[in-house]
Structures are given as C-alpha cells and as structure tokens.
User: Fold this.
Amino acid sequence: MAYTGLSFGNPVFAAYAAYSSLVLLKMFVLAGYTTYTRFRVGVFANPEDVKGNKGAVARLDNPDVERVRRLHRNDLENIPAFLAVGLLYVLTGPSPGVALWHFRIFTAARCFHTVSYLAAVQPLRTLCYTAGLLATISMTLQVLMAGAL
Amino acid sequence: MAYTGLSFGNPVFAAYAAYSSLVLLKMFVLAGYTTYTRFRVGVFANPEDVKGNKGAVARLDNPDVERVRRLHRNDLENIPAFLAVGLLYVLTGPSPGVALWHFRIFTAARCFHTVSYLAAVQPLRTLCYTAGLLATISMTLQVLMAGAL
Amino acid sequence: MAYTGLSFGNPVFAAYAAYSSLVLLKMFVLAGYTTYTRFRVGVFANPEDVKGNKGAVARLDNPDVERVRRLHRNDLENIPAFLAVGLLYVLTGPSPGVALWHFRIFTAARCFHTVSYLAAVQPLRTLCYTAGLLATISMTLQVLMAGAL
Assistant:
C-alpha cells in the first residue's frame, strides 16, 4: 500500500515537492531578471541604488522594469496559493495520475505565462494564467470538500 | 483519542483545510473581479492587452482598477501568512474550539474586509483588517512558543 | 532516534516553526510601520481613509510610504517562498546543524534587509537580500532532488 501522507515515500507528495521547487526556481530566476533589466535600462527604485552608478536614475515608471514587476506580482498572486493548497490536496489522497496532471498543468502554465508576459504575446498569456488558476481552483475545491464534509 | 497531526481525521486540521480553501476561493474571485473591472472601465495594464479592443487603453492609474489591486495586495500580505502559520498552529495541538475561532475570525474578517474595501466603508475595513491580523498573530505566537521552548 | 516528520518533537521542525514565526512577526511589525508612516506623513491610499482627518491627503506617491511598501513587497517575494519550501526541506531529513544554519541565515538576512532598506544603506541591503535568497534556493534544490530522484 502506498503511503498517503507527507513523506517522500509517497509518490504524490514527492511529485508535489518537485513541481513546487521548479515553480519556485522559475520565480527566483524572474527576481534575478528584474535586477538584470534594471541594470540594462539603468533604472532603479531607490536613490541609494544609483549612487556611484553613472547614468543610472531612480524612477518608478520604466516600462520594461514595470512589466517584469507586474509579472512577478502575478506570480505572487498565484504561486503561494498553489504551494499552500497543493500540500493540503496531497493529504486528500488523490489518484496519483490525476494529482500529477494538476501539478504539471500548473507548473507548465506558469512557465509559459512567464515567457508570454515577457514577450507580450496575447492571448497566450491569458490562456496560461487561466490554466494555472483552474488547476489551483480544482485542488482548492477538493480540499474544501475533504475538510468540510 | 483524536489524532492531532496533518490528517483529515483530525477535526482541527479538517477545519483549517476548509477555512483555508474558503479564503483562497475568495481571493480567486477577487482576481476575477480585477479582470471584470478592467473590462468595465476599459483600462488594461499592457499595450498587447488592448489590441483589437476598441476604446480600451493601457494605463496604470484608473482609480477603480487600482482600488481592486490594492485590496488584492492586502490579501497577499495576509492570506499566505495565515495559510503557512495555520498549518504549524494545527501541529501545536490546540484546543479544537479555540482553533476553530481563530480560523473563523480570520476568514470572516477577510471576507468583510474585501466587501468594505470595495464599498469604501471605513472604519469597518480597518477593523476587519485588524481582526484578521490579530488572529494570525495569536497563532504565530503560539507556534513560536511551541517551537522555541 | 530523532523523529524526522512534522512534529514539535523533531528538533529540525521545531526550529523551522520558531524561525518562521519570527520572520512572520517581523513582517507584521512592518505592516504596522506602514500605518505609522502614513499617519506621520499624513498620506493615505484611499479617499475614505482621510475623511475627518484634517491635513491628511490621499496620494500614492509619498516617498517615505512607498519605500516601506517596496520593502513589504520584497518580503512578499521572499518570505512565503521560504515558509513553503522550508516545510518541505524539513521532510527531506536534513542534518539538524545544516538546517539550523539555513533558517538562521534567512531570518537574520531578512531582519537586516528590513533595517537597511528603511535606513537606505547600500550595498548592505543587496547583500542581505542575496543571503536570504541563497538560503532559500539551497533548500529548494535539496527539495527538488529529494522529490525528483
């Protein structure tokens, strides 16, 4: 009998942990990309950030930087929710195959969302956002049913 | 003896899971309400979002949209913290009745906070914000004592 | 044999819970500091916040308030990720000494990051941000290896 709790011996939990790590690493790469973009365009958020950096200015309205920041904020609206509800979903004892597809769809959707936001590709970006949200909502409803019934 | 770990057989955990799901669903509805508001006022964040949408503009300063975004950000400042510390709080083995009131107060406070922010009702909004934060701080202090002592 | 699961009897989990609580309390203090700063400078975000408050205005561009808000957002980009991946990291069964240093470095880095952001001290702020992120990335990679291999 497969163990169904929070242990790397439970294949559903191991998959949740692996996909969670991947989507977090994606977000950390995006944080680095914000810094890269700030240096590329020479625009920083704070006066102390541009001291001794010739040609750099402190402004909050550079379109390239603000695009990365909007994307990062969209990650913050979606990824912590996935991480929290995904763990509870593992504990509902879902079918491994169904669970795996929830994790895969969310992770793939957030990766393609990132690329399509940076490349300004619509409606792909909205489709990816929606796919990731639907995977999270599906898990949330299953957790609600397991907890409330 | 009631089980005290992370299992839907533990009534405190089941309640935590149910209220966490409810507060996440509330946040997802808010995400949809942002999109609804953008279409209602015809204001979007990115140039690629308004292509082929006659009369829509890309601006970042619409008061209606920014109000929903400030509210959503306030959710991000409070809900992931509740989700994370609530799980640890379940593991401290709290009295079920006391735990249930923490979860209920937080969830109700965030729902009424949402409505009062959208309807611009003060000081109800600040009271709801404070009630939700105090419930979270109470759980955080109990987790700190269980972990540090 | 020390228990390695999610229980306060497991010293690694207890340390994770204690440091998580500390870093959350730090963030809640920052939320209060935002309110303090708004009252100090008399600048609020919403028209309903300044009614009956003589001399207060609703504006979104006060430099002191926006600095605290940028710092708070940086917390949101880093602390929920630490909370989520730290729990999974505990379940990989790390060496207690190594795990403790991950938690200590993250918590100390975020506290000093907060102070250096408010005091506008560079490059200390960037060093603290990087130290906290590296501790989180190290845990994330260990979780990925435990889950994917």
